[in-house]
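Sample entry (242 residues):
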Amino acid sequence: MGRCAFMIMGAGLLLVSGFTSTGAQAEMVWSTFSLSYLRGDHYQVGDDSRRVLTVEHASKHTWGDNFFFLDNLSSDDGTVKNYFELAPRLSLTYVTNKQMSVGIIKDLLIASTWESGDGFNNYLYGLGMALAVPGFRYFNINLYQVDNDLWDDDEQMTLTWGLPFTLAGANFLFDGFLDYSTASDSNAREMNFTSQVKWDLGPLIGATAPFYVGMEYAYWNNKFGIDGVNERNPCLLVKWHF
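Predicted structure, serialized as tokens:
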């Protein structure tokens, strides 16, 4: 049932990306593409020292928004793994041609995510909210039912945010996500709070797009649903947008 729902939503996104409910052409509002490098030495589950190269793309459209990333993880013990997520959301304002905004809620969306790694595929589907929070570039909440491939199904809440700020004339960005997953018969309750604080060096080197250096910190309880496996992992970060 979960996989069917995900496939139906994906097909719906393809259909409405070309036409609105009134027949108008869909448009892209903005998009960004980036490459990043992480180095950390406190990973849990597998080798504790890894390098992560990430390709990332995010875009906003009249029909909703989309987020994609691909991680290539290389461990000091020679292990190499790949993991990606594809997360399109469909705007109910777009579908119904009626404003769904109320209070700080800018829009309601049908939210979906495809998680895939070495040997598994998870499918998430549910309801999303785009919020207007003062000072934040974006703030989103998604509530999912999760169709897991390797363990029992569960529910998940995901928060994502981006908060730009200026310090001593320099531009910074504090962004990240929080995933909270419920427990099931096969996995423990899980919480992953991963955030980045990064300084934009772009203006100093003449770049027209952000070039960030900074730190990522992962605070992960019961990693991968494994009871008692808790990760506290600071990483060096370099991220280039173009």
